[in-house]
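Recall that a protein's primary structure is simply its ordered list of amino acids. Everything else, from secondary elements to tertiary packing, is in principle encoded there. The following example makes that idea concrete.
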Amino acid sequence: LFAKTVGSSFIQELIKSTHFLYWPPFSKSKASIFSFEDAGLLEGTGIMAFMQRGVRKVILPIMPQFPLAQSAEFDFCDPSLSLEKLYTVNLSQYQMPGHLYDKFGYSTAIEQGVDWTKNQVFRRQDLWTLACKLQRLHEAGKPAIAWQTLPVQRNSFWGIEGDWDADLL
């Protein structure tokens, strides 16, 4: 029914738009055509493939459907967020996009079939400096674009060795 409504040529073009050359992270073979479709069930950004390869400069776009909370609601620059408190803070998608905080080890629940609990590649305490920068820029009416060098942590689930630094934008 959908194909009849929008036309089969549209559907064909849409399907073709998901096909790209892909180079498997643990393969020495050449890139081949692969169909990429967004399910986001384990990880929604593609950053894990970069980390697996040891890519040291990464751009991580933050999807706007769940923007950062305003500082009046949750202040990421609050100095009372001590290292001890960081392990008891529960973030939600209403304070920060889950595909950002899960990379810092703050995703603790499996909801609606989505499991981002194994996606930590950066230290928990490093999220706050980055989130503070993004929040202040956004509240000043500027683009929320921040760069930070972060130590990459070992992640055996994704096969990431860790013990090196990545520049995250």
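The two ends are 42 Å apart (CA to CA). The CA atoms of residues 71 and 107 lie 21 Å apart.
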